[in-house]
Design brief:
The protein contains 15 helices and 13 strands. By secondary structure, it is α/β, with parallel strands linked by helices. Strands 3-2-1-4-5-6-7-8 form an eight-stranded mixed sheet, with helices on both faces. It has a five-stranded parallel sheet with strand order 9-13-12-10-11. It is globular and about 75 Å long. The chain starts with 5 loop residues before the first helix and ends in an 8-residue tail after the last helix.
Amino acid sequence: MSDLTPDELRRYARHLAIPEFGIEGQRRLKAARVLCIGAGGLGSPITMYLAAAGIGGLGLVDPDVVEVTNLQRQILFGQKDLGRKKLEAARERLLDINPHLDVQIYPERFTAENAMRIAADYDVIIDGTDNFPTRYLSNDVAVWLKKPNVYGSILRFDGQVGVFAPHLGAPCYRCMCPQPPPPGLVPSCAEGGVLGVLPGLIGAMQALEAIKIITGIGQPLLGKLLHLDTLSMRFRTLTLRRDPDCPVCGNNPTITQPIDYEGFCGIPKSPAAAPDMPAMTVHELKELRDAGDDHFLLDVREPHEQAICRIGGATLIPLGELENRLGELPKNKRILIHCKSGGRSARAVSRLRELGFNDVWNVSGGIIAWAREIDNQMAEY
């Protein structure tokens, strides 16, 4: 067990004063290594609180750079970090919080190829992601390596926290969600939005659960799912049970190594994965508009999104209303469809083709690509 230096004894004095925690709990924290997948809204409070608490080793996985839209909730970063790689900025900030911390960074996507290698040397895995492929992958790796998986998710005003650990008698994430929802049914934070303070609450709870697991204090959320509705400030705790037929942690597992998680979640890896989807770039759209092409530009976002920015001449019909408003679509024109980043518009194209509309096209990258590549005066969100 790691000894504490005089500086550490002073630094963690408020921990040492807690009878249930004490010097033994602090030693256990110092000896532990935690992997946090994602350094965004959840990863920010998770890593900052673990660093301050005195965790010995902290691994961070995230391939992204800091963007201005991150600053509303990702408190690891500030204005000076814009354009920097997230993990470089994160390591600098975390070592400023606690120079005793050993920070290992992995500026790459967490994939089937690298997941086992990255996670092998850590005691606890914390899921700070916002997408289903990584969520299923982190769960499965945690099951195979027999490591607790501290789960958190956020959207708009609601959040969830739980601890999945079949080796400790609790279910895994797949026991709760055997199959991912159809692509696009659950919006990402980028599409659906998230109240900036919410990841602070949920991420702090995830850090707390990791500390409880490592030090042995209290009752971690093993087999429990805590749901928080911040608008009413109501907490609900749901009991989860292991599924004996779970393909990963069940009695006769059928998944024993990483799979194509994007395929499992129904997400095309690239446009080539959906060869029958007619699509065009924002540059091609601009060329058509400049040439006076007679087409119908359809915006399938929500009204509050269009209030932020819009492409002139586009007709707004939110995706959820589309099938009830088919009469508003022309039969004799090419229909070009855009949304924020291309996901909802792709679903609209697929559905309209099923309904007999043949000349419909997805605008790849959506209005975000238009703002970045065509009109840099347009607001982004």
